[in-house]
Amino acid sequence: MIRPDWHIVEEWIAPGRRVLDLGCGDGALLGHLIDTRQIVGVGLELEDDHVAACIERGISVIQEDLDTGISDWFTPDSFDYVIVSQTIQAIRHPERLLVDMLKIAREGIVTFPNMGYWRNRVQLGLLGHMPINRALPNPWYNTPNIHLCTLTDFEALCDELGIDILDRAVVDRARRESPLLRALPNWFGEHAIYRIRRRD
Amino acid sequence: MGIVQPQIARFQEPLALDCGRTLASYDIVYETYGQMNEARDNAILICHALSGDHHAAGYHAETDRKPGWWDSAIGPGKPIDTNRFFVVSLNNLGGCKGSTGPLSIDPATGKPYGPDFPIVTVQDWVHAQYRFMQRLGIDRWAAVIGGSLGGMQVLQWAITYPDALAHAIVIAAAPKLSAQNIAFNEVARQAIITDPDFHGGRYAEYGTIPRRGLMLARMLGHITYLSDDAMRAKFGRELRGGQIQYGFDVEFQVESYLRYQGSSFVDRFDANTYLLMTKALDYFDPAHGFGDDLSVALASVKASCLVVSFTSDWRFSPGRSREIVQALLAAGKRVSYAEIESNHGHDAFLVTIPYYHRVLAGYLAQIEGGSVA
C-alpha cells in the first residue's frame, strides 16, 4: 500500500541519494523510495518481525533501539537524507534524536501525528479524555506514543535546537493536502511532514 | 540431508603461509550438499568454527547418532536450502579430520607432522579455500557463511577476494579477539601443553595422548560457549546422587556434563590441532595492516553483508558484531544486522531459533531473486 504522505516524502528526495530511515518498520517506505527514486536505503528498526520483513524484501536494516543512540552506528554526513516517519513521538529523547540525526545527514524528514488536530482538541478540550482515533489509536495507558506534540510545539523545539525548517506539509484524514489545511494547519492537519536541516 | 560422503581434493602447488613457511602439497577434505546449477553461481561455502570440520550436515552412516554440526540450518527446505543452493563445507588446513594437519605425514620426513605442522592463520585458510573454489570450477560463491571462527573466515574472504563472493554472512563473530578471549585460549593451551603426556606435541611417538589437558581445554571452552542462563536452565544446582557427598567426585549435574563433553572431545579431536586453531583465532585481526582501522580494511569489500549476533553470547557479544557492522557502514558497504534474543550463549548459532532462521532464510531467499545483489 502506498500512503498519500509518501508522495510528499518522495517529492523531497532527489533520485539516487543515500537515505536512512529511522524506525523503518517493515521497510515499506524504503522499498517505495527504492522503486520510485532509486535511492540507496538503510533502515533502523527494533522489532524482530519488522527486521525480518525488511530482510525478506531485500532492504538493508540494522536492528537497534532508537532510544539507545544512533550516532554510534553512523558516521557524520554518511547519508543525504534521514527520515523519521511516525516514530519521533515514541522516542524517549526526541530532542536528542533530532540533533543526532542531523549530524548523520544534513537534511531530515520528520512525520508525526499532530496533537493540535481539531479532533484531538475536541476529545481532550471538550470531552475531557485523551484522544483515540486513527492517527492515535492506543489508549493512554498502552501506547508507544510518549511525546506527542503539535505543529507549534515541534517548530518551537526546532528553533531552540538550531534546526531550520525547509518545508512543511500537513495532510488530513485521507492524508492529502487541501486549502483549509494550508490556512489553518495546526487545526486541520492530522499528520505533519517536515523537511529540516541543521542551521550552520 | 540423508547420508553424505566426504571427498578429498589434492593440491600439488605449494602454498605460502603467513608464518613464512610453505606447504609443498596438501589435501582438503570436503562435503557437498545439493546440486551445482549450470551457471555455477548457486554455490555456498560454509566455514567451520574452532572444533568443527567438513561434516556440516547429514549423516555418514545409518548408525550415526548425531548429524553434521550445522544440520539445523542446511538441507532441503532449511534456511540454507539445498533445493536451491550447492553447499560446500571443508575441513581447514591444520585440522584433524582428513585435511592436511598435524596428523598427516610430512613428505619431508615420512613421519606425522605433529607439533612441526606450521602455524596457520585465517588468511592462510582463505587462500587455500580460494584455490579449492577454483578447483570446483566456481568463479564466485553466491554466499560465504560461517559462525564464530567461521564468521572471521567470511570477513577475511570479503576483504581478500572481494570479487569471489556475492554475499557474506557473519554470525556470532568478532573483528578480533579481546584480551579476555586470548586469555581463555591461553589457559586452554597451557592445560594441553603442561599435560605430562603432551611430550612437546610428540605424544604420538610416545604412544600417549594429553587426555587431561585436552579435556580441561574443552571443559573451559564449553563454559564460554554457554551462558549463565543456559547453564541454569539446563542444570541448575541439580545433584546427580540427590544429596551432597562432601567430596570431589562428580556431584552437580553441570560437573558431569562438562566431564562428559571433555572426555568425548578427547576421542575425536587432536591436541595439536586444538593448539593451532586457538592460535588462528588469537592472530585474526584484519585491521592490523590497515592502521587498526577496520573500516579501512573493509574498503575493498564488494559483497553484501549480513551480520548476526545473539544477546546472551558473552564469548563474542553483540557489541563485537556491532563493531563489524559499524565499520562496514562507515566504509559505505551494504549490510544488515540482526540481534537475536537467545539464552543459549555463543552456541546459539547452532540452535534452531525461529527468528534467527527466519532472518537467515529471508536473506538467502533474496539472493536468487537478485534484488539483494
TrEMBL record, chain A:
Q: Which InterPro entries match?
A: Methionine_synth_MetW, SAM-dependent_MTases_sf
Q: Which Gene3D superfamilies match?
A: Vaccinia Virus protein VP39
| Coiled coil residues, start to end | none
Pfam families reported in the protein's UniProt record: MetW
Task: Specify the protein name.
Answer: Methionine biosynthesis protein MetW
Source organism = Halothiobacillus diazotrophicus
